[in-house]
Predict the structure.
Amino acid sequence: MDRVSRRPRLSTVWLGGCSGCHMSFLDLDERLIDLAGRVELCASPITDYKEFPETDITLVEGAVANLEHLEHIRVVRKRTKILVSLGDCAVTGNVTAMRNMYGLEDVLTRAYRDTAAVVIGIPNGNGAVPRLLERVRPVHEVVKVDHFLPGCPPSADAIHAFLIELLEGRTTALQGRFG
Amino acid sequence: MSVKTLEIDGKMVTGMAGETIFSVAWEHGIHIPRLCHIGGISDVGACRLCMVEVEGQRKLQAACLTQIEEGMVVRTDTPRLKAHRKLIVELLMAERNHICAVCVANGACELQELARSMGIDHVRLRYRFPVFPVDTSNERFGMDHNRCVLCTRCVRVCDEVEGAHTWDVFGRGAGSRIISDLGEPWGASESCTGCGKCVQVCPTGALFDKGKTVAEMRKDRGFLKYIVTAREKKQWIG
């Protein structure tokens, strides 16, 4: 396929979020079939990829909460033409960032010592679990973001309208809302 | 009282002497954004969202505090004003912990609605994530300082309409906080009558009814007009 006529490549990424934005994306229902004909779906949280592929559009759900998120989003940014923050966690930090009001040490102690019942102790990593960042950050604090789609989650209609606008090359001025 | 004629956004309008730019504009369908103003209580010009350009004046004026004058030329919606207002809302969002998704007032919040109406889809400033307490000592209401924008509507309605003056402002700058009486927990306040007027006028979810969960809090401001009409016209009409 030549460069002009090929379908745009779409990927989605899941950082520190509840997967609700992806669920909302799936709520496109039968519109997904139409969308599948218009884009080439390259990577998603359920795609088994070793390396994140070169992509035209990437939708990012979730805030940057740990070292793995940080490294991943930097690679995604490099390989993506249009990066989109999808939903409040990516856009504002949202619930994922509520721990920022307390120190990381206090949060870990609360979760893994004070309230633990079976295995008590803060996981030290050893590569098994990624190290948490001192502070959870919205995606645009870490890499350049091209478009924002707020909402918790953004409605399927909002995601659909946004993607269609983007695919048809119109500049999107959508009225999204936090929360 | 004399009638004054002026121009707002290219439209010739009239108002009574002593009226503010804000109220004359709203009477003529020009809705200047606001957060601290609410009809029925005094204005303080705290939020700065209603700032307008007045021809011949170098500085911007708060529409809620500036009285109309004959021949005045006012602009309420220039690119410069829009940019200022956008930044004010972003500053408010970044200053405390406004997490709309888990707020009682989600869907009925004036700050959230302002952001939406201005097309704010992200905040360009770094969020501060300050530590603020939540006061649930009152039997029927709660006060979450994380969601407070310091508009002081609660302070004014309590003082001017209820006549209790339970609320006031403590501290300075970003560390300012609404306090009850002399800083006691709300539940221990001796002056609070428990009327709940402050809860109804609060533009965000900072003041809320206990027992309400996410997106369940809806504010009823009808009482304010009712009381003010009764006071001014001696008639009990809504």
Observations:
- Chain B has two domains: 3-77, 102-233.
- The mean pLDDT of chain B is 96.
- The CA atoms of residues 5 and 14 of chain B lie 4 Å apart.
- The domain at 3-77 of chain B is CATH 3.10.20.740 (Ubiquitin-like (UB roll)).
